[in-house]
Amino acid sequence: MANATMGDRPAVLSDLIPGRLVRDAVLVVGAAALTGLAAQISVPLPDTPVPMTLQTLAVLLSGAALGLHRAFLGMAIYFLVGQVSELAGLGLTWFAPSGGNATLGYVVGFIAAASLVGYLAGRGGDRTVGRTIRTMLAGTAVIYAVGVPWLMVYTGMDLGTAFAKGVVPFLVGDGIKLVIAAGLLPATWKLIGRTKP
After folding, report:
1. Nearest 10 degrees: Cα torsion 62, 171, 181, 15
2. Alpha-carbon distance 77 to 179, whole Å?
3. What is the pTM of this model?
C-alpha cells in the first residue's frame, strides 16, 4: 500500500514513518477518525442545509500526507462507518451532526478528493506553496463537483440555487483552509529536509 518514492525521496509525508503494514493501518484508521472528529466541529448556516465544518481540511491534509491508496482507504472507511452507524441506528455521530442526507454527496466527494490530492502529492504537489495551492484547489473542486449534484437531487434545487447554497457560503472558509495547507505542507517538507542527517 505504500506509495512509490520520488527517486531517493519519500513520495508523501507518511512514507517517512518506519514500518509498513501496522503504519499503514494506523494511518488509514487515523485519517478516518480525524475526519470524523473534524465533522463534529459543525456550524449550521442560515438558508442552507450544508453546515460549515473542518472536514474538508482533514480530508485534504489526509490526502496529501497519506498518498493515493491510504487516503482512499481512510475516506472509504470514514464513509462506511458513518453509513453503517446511521443504517444500524448505533447512535454514533460520525458525519456532521447538522448535515443530514443533504450532505451525503460531499462525503462521497471526500473519497475522490483525498485520492486526487494523494495522487498529486505523491508527484510533488505539496512541496511548494504554489503546487500545494493547485493541489488543494483541485481537491476542493472535486468535493463540490460531487456534493452539489447530490444536493440538487436530494433537495430538488436547480443548479444555480444549489451552487448558491452549497458552494458560495463556503468559499471564504475553504480559502482559509487552503492557506493553512499551503503554509503547513511545504513548511513540513522544508523542516524534514533540514533535520535529515
Report:
1. 20
2. 27
3. 0.86
Contacts of 184 (CB under 8 A, 6+ apart): 61
Q: What is the pLDDT of residues 30-81, one digit of tens each?
A: 999 999 999 999 999 999 999 999 999 999 999 999 999 999 999 999 999 9
How long a stretch of residues is the chain? 197
Structure-block grid coordinates of residue 54: 473542518
Gap between the Cα atoms of 126 and 40, Å rounded:
27
DSSP the chain: -PPPPBTTB-SSGGGGSS-SHHHHHHHHHHHHHHHHHHHTSEE--TT-SPPEESHHHHHHHHHHHH-HHHHHHHHHHHHHHHHHHHHHT-----S-TTTGGGGHHHHHHHHHHHHHHHHHHTTTTTSSHHHHHHHHHHHHHHHHHHHHHHHHHHH---HHHHHHHHTGGGHHHHHHHHHHHHHHHHHHHHHHHHH--
CA pair distance 166, 135, nearest whole angstrom: 21
Q: What sign has the CA pseudo-torsion 110, 53, 167, 124?
A: negative
* CB 32 within 8 Å of CB 72: no
Compute CA 100 distance to the chain's CA centroid, rounded to the nearest angstrom.
19
Cβ contact 85:98 at 8 Å: no
Residue in this structure with the C-alpha cell 460531487, named with its chain if needed = 146
Phi, psi of 48 (to 5 degrees): -150, 140
